[in-house]
Amino acid sequence: MSTPALHIAGLSHRYGARLALDGVSLNVAPGEFRVLLGPNGAGKSTLYGLLTRLLACQSGAIELFGQTLSAPAMAGLGVVFQQPTLDLDLTVEQNLAYFAALHGLRGSERRARIDAELQRMALVERRHERVRLLNGGHRRRVEIARALLHRPRLLLLDEATVGLDMPARRFLVEHVHRLAREEGLAVLWATHLIDEVRADDHIALLHQGRLLASGVAGELTAQAECDSLAQWFDRQTGKEDSACLWP
Ligand SMILES: Nc1ncnc2c1ncn2[C@@H]1O[C@H](COP(=O)(O)OP(=O)(O)OP(=O)(O)O)[C@@H](O)[C@H]1O
């Protein structure tokens, strides 16, 4: 078996008395689009905080491509946080150039990487516009383009589509799926939006800090004899008292 892009074993995290993550174990393989599905407060952002070392690891282990979470291993990581982090007063291109420079990209290589990501995100026409003028969907496109400039092998996205309309969400979900499928990028896509999950997506269900289930969405739904993933999700998270067979 190849080394997982991401390996999480027995990860727990406390904020004082509150246990936000409780023994979470999870792998993401190269080229896999893995959905981390969880309602608000499930612990998704805490997990992302630990994966990006914004939070110090209290217990458990995290490995990126078989290496501990050190600076060299993290060079292969791309991240889109839940809260947007673009500079609204810089142009699209300036935002990308600044970040590329932080990653040590220079000169023609930097220009080529920026051009390529703008092209893929259909943002070429907007490159000289200030980000403040872009709608939410386009801002998120810029953030994803930025996260890919240094060619990471693992992309983490925390609720990247929150607040966007359906076409914008579809565009982003499809784009990131394509990156996994065609370029072998490993993806961990955190969301609480069931309609973003496809039947053939591999999901991990996080609820109140615990990983409740893991598997292919369509198979989990069928095994539980639910009519839909939404029904399965409600049942797993205790929102639905009755069995899925009798909606
Ligand atoms: N800094 C903090 N101090 C105390 N408790 C916190 C802190 N951050 C998060 N929590 C708590 O930890 C739990 C997990 O929160 P977290 O933000 O990781 O969940 P989430 O799945 O990302 O939810 P959301 O989608 O609402 O951001 C929640 O009960 C939350 O209230």
From TrEMBL:
One of its GO terms (molecular function) is ATP hydrolysis activity. InterPro entries: AAA+_ATPase, ABC_transporter-like_ATP-bd, ABC_transprt_ATP-bd_su_PQQ, P-loop_NTPase. The keyword Cell membrane applies. Keywords: ATP-binding, Cell membrane, Membrane, Nucleotide-binding. Pfam families: ABC_tran. SMART domains: AAA. It comes from the Bacteria. Residues 6-233 form the ABC transporter domain. This is ABC-2 type transport system ATP-binding protein.
